[in-house]
Amino acid sequence: MMNSNIKSTKKDIVVVGGGPAGMAAGLRGAEEGAEVMIVERDIELGGILNQCIHNGFGVEIYGEELTGPEYAERFTSQISESSVDVMLNTFVLSMRPDKSMTLLTPNGLLEVEAEAVVLATGARERSRGEIRIPGSRPSGVMPAGTAQELINKKGFLPGKRVFVLGSGDIGLIISRRLTWEGAEVAGVAEIMDYPTGLNRNVVQCLHDYDIPLHLSHTVTDIYGSNRLEGVELSRVDDNMKPVEGTGQDIDVDLLLLSVGLVPENDFFKEAGVTLSERTSGPIVDEWFQTDVPGIFGCGNSVHIEDLVDWVTMDGFRAGDGAVAYAGNGNLQSAEKDVVPGENVNYVVPQKVSGEDDFRFALRVEEPMENADISIKGTDISFFEKIVTPGEMEVNEVEGEDLEELQGLDEIEVEVTRRF
Ligand SMILES: Cc1cc2nc3c(=O)[nH]c(=O)nc-3n(C[C@H](O)[C@H](O)[C@H](O)COP(=O)(O)OP(=O)(O)OC[C@H]3O[C@@H](n4cnc5c(N)ncnc54)[C@H](O)[C@@H]3O)c2cc1C
Hints:
By secondary structure, this protein is of the alpha/beta class. It has three domains: 8-125 and 261-331, FAD/NAD(P)-binding domain (3-Layer(bba) Sandwich); 127-259, FAD/NAD(P)-binding domain (3-Layer(bba) Sandwich), CATH 3.50.50; 332-419. The chain has ten helices and 27 strands. Strand 14 and strand 15 (230-235) form a beta hairpin. The protein is globular, with a radius of gyration of 22 Å.
């Protein structure tokens, strides 16, 4: 029974997470006339954008390169003029399949019932424990995003001579940022034989500053007792196992880990949503609805996106879905599975109705030149000069193309060489 001292409220749509995904979903809901609440644990809206002071945001949507905070401001200003109820400094403590939740607000506990819920909780960085680097446990080893937050939001330089493990976008961007702040970046190691971040970031963040990129290498030891004193860097073989005798010691006082992001999926689990083994996020349809009716996801909580523009567009779409669901408690059912075929690691959404236009995003397993991204058994195909696992491919199936899907039981997306 509900404690009568605890306040309660009802909303059409509750959005958890006030990053770009959640802001887009919330704004769209309010524009369509729904009563919307955005719940954000931080003291401001914007999510990860607030610590990304480099430019490169908004190229697809605005046709210009904004910084993260500038991009965020375009949405926060609209939200402040909208009817959206923004709850800052507020944590979701528990989330239930019936779309009710308990919030911890600055004014105490609040019980909220929602017609539809959008979970836009972003992602977390993988830690040292998850990749099992041996060695001692000194201070000076941290995720790259934490270092970015310390430098850009708190004005604190966490090291003077740095090594970065992982060539994803966060690792590349923090290398340049540290160089600008006067630190020396001794190198970046990548276990794969290709960089996993966007090509433009490899050029602009490493090549332009003569920072060495060690492909097919990893950190195999960590030295130091209180503070990090150095790392051992070793070459890896084709099975990504370190090759004995190739280790070289590098003196550094900071090791940054940029070894991948994982969707924040705890609330999906609490709500009983089925997760994808490939993305670790929920299985969603073209409206970003999960298999628990009325619970939606969008942005990095569904899968790790590389451009904020796609995050925003997915947020709008999830907002549309939530409005439709909150309106009549139903959305047309998506019965066709979308499955990864040749050279596709994952594809989102994993289900579609085949009735509505939809955008699908995928990551390939292996880099490929002159690639055809196609739907097997149809003439639907998209050409890409180069595809790599580090760059998400996004394409749209619309209009007459939808008719081609009618005869298919499942939609298999594959990436093959055109010539
Ligand atoms: C270092 C870095 C550089 C990038 N550079 C670029 C770039 O140059 N160009 C580009 O287009 N994109 C870039 N991106 C990608 C882009 O920033 C992300 O894809 C986007 O911010 C993801 O948005 P999101 O809303 O899904 O998640 P987030 O921005 O992470 O927002 C999630 C929000 O949910 C909140 N939250 C989580 N759990 C709870 C809870 N329990 N209760 C309440 N609130 C909660 C968090 O506090 C956060 O505000 C970069 C990303 C990073 C990390």
